[in-house]
Structure formats: C-alpha cells, structure tokens
Amino acid sequence: MPDLPQSRRIRVLVADDEPHLARHLSEMLVEAWPMLEVVAVVHDGRAALQAVAQSHPDLAFLDIRMPEVDGIEVGWHVARQTRVVYVTAHEEHAVAAFEQGAADYVMKPVTVTRLARTMARLTPLFDSASGQAAVRKQGFVTTLRIVDTAKQPRLVRVEEIRYLRACGNYLHAIASNVSGTMRVSLTEALQMLDPGQFVQIHRGVAVNMGAVVAVRNQGHGAVVRLDGVEEELRVSRLYRHEVLGNAGFQRPPRRP
To answer: What is the pLDDT of residue 179?
Structure first.
C-alpha cells in the first residue's frame, strides 16, 4: 500500500443503518489505511447527505439498504463531490453502482484484507490528477492537458471542449478546434470539472452543457445536439433527468 504525505489525510464518511457494523467498518478502515480520517459515521441516507455537505469527505463508504434514502440514491447525489464505495450484502446492485461511477463495490462480510486492496487502488487517485490540469481556486479546472491526433501535448480550455468519451484506459476529448486523449477515467475527469458545466449523459460520455443547442426526448432517454458536433449523442435513462434539469427543463422530484 503506497504511503501518503503526512500532510494529506484522506477524509472518509461511513454510512450503515446498523451502528455496530458502521463502527466496525470505521475501525477496519483505519487499520487498513492509517492515514485515513473518519470524519462522520451516520446511520441513514438523509444523514449521509447532510454529512457530505458539512464534512466534504474524499470518500464515502455507503451501505445500500438504509432508511430515509438508500445508498444508491445517496451516491447519485454526491458522486461529483466525493468518491463512493458501496459496502453491501446485496450483489444485485453492482451494475447500477458502477454505471453511476462507484469507485468500488465491497461485499459483506468485510475484511481488513479486502479494504486494504480498495485503499491500495484508490490512494493514487488523490494525487494523480494534479498533473492533468491547471486548477483554479474553487477546485475546478480551467484547462485540460490532452495528447492530440499528431501525438503532441496541448492545453485545451474546458469551455472549448464539447464532450468527453471514455475509450478503454483513456478519455477522448472533443473540442471546438481539436481532439485528443487523456490517460484518466471519466469519473476522475468529472471530479476535476465544474458539475454545473459538465454533465454525464451515458455510462461513458459527458457533455459540456454550455455547448448544448438542443435536447429532445427519445424513448426512455433523450438525445442532445452540441454546437459544432454533427452526431447526436444519446442520453441514457439513468442520466435523463440530470440533463434536462441542467438544460433548463423542469426536473421531476426523485423518490424520497
């Protein structure tokens, strides 16, 4: 497990509706990752949402079946603010979790060894993004570093980017006057970008809402048209309400 600088402690939220399991998970996390700091332990989804807003954790370990608001719903709301790891006894939710961009999906009963594997994989994410972008004061990026089609590195202003598409281990960025790739996942890129500007529309695609010129419903999903982009991009049902809301449409309330 890689060591972190002494000045960088990873802030963690734990949410489980069974207090003894939440406490036990917190203890195992500290054992698996000594540089970790548990900033909040809560026992229902609504409290988890409040804790994320107040404590700004780097990671949220969420049980799925919780009262008030379930873990999947919590993850949907906080995915742009914190990385989410689901800890559950129910494997049937794995597809939905990873489509949402979950960092990991840990099955109960949890062991220190399993958590250590999660930590070893996630630790580099907290300092690897700095080389990909120039960060402005509020924490979002103003430029992204891409490698263009001529295999030359270039800095591209985020407002020039029309959309981002995941492609294997790389991310393809299509801008107004250039396209290129970044060695970063879509989830990592969205952590760096203003969530009011870049919105995920599909499992592997996010668009710059400032470039959207039209949105129309199509079946259970929708399609968007972007300025300067010939093809229409499909919006999956999972992200339809998010896109419509950011495009200025009335978004229906989500279930409590």
So the answer is: 92
- Residue 143 makes CB contacts below 8 A (sequence gap 6+) with 133, 134, 155, 156, 157, 158
List for the chain the helix, strand, coil content (%; round to 5): 35, 35, 35
Q: Could you tell me whether strands 10-15 and 36-42 are parallel, antiparallel, or unpaired per DSSP bridges?
A: parallel
pLDDT digits (tens, 9 = 90+) for 53-92: 899 999 999 999 998 888 988 988 888 788 999 998 887 7
Question: Interior CA angle at 19 toward 15 and 24, to 5°?
Answer: 85
Contacts of 155 (CB under 8 A, 6+ apart): 134, 143, 144, 145, 146
Are 148 and 179 in contact by the 8 Å Cβ rule? The answer is yes
CB 122 within 8 A of CB 59: yes
Identify which has the larger pLDDT, 130 or 73: 73
Question: How many CB atoms are located within 10 Å of the residue 237 CB?
Answer: 10
Contact 36, 57 (CB under 8 A): no
What does the alpha-carbon distance between residue 187 and residue 177 come to, in Å, rounded to a whole number?
24
| Residue 205 contacts residue 173 (beta carbons within 8 Å) | no
Please give the domain boundaries of the chain with CATH numbers for all domains. Answer: 10-123 (3.40.50.2300), 128-246 (2.40.50.1020)
Q: What stretch of H or E contains 119?
A: helix 112-122
- Residue 91 tokens read as 């494997």
Contact 73, 254 (CB under 8 A): yes
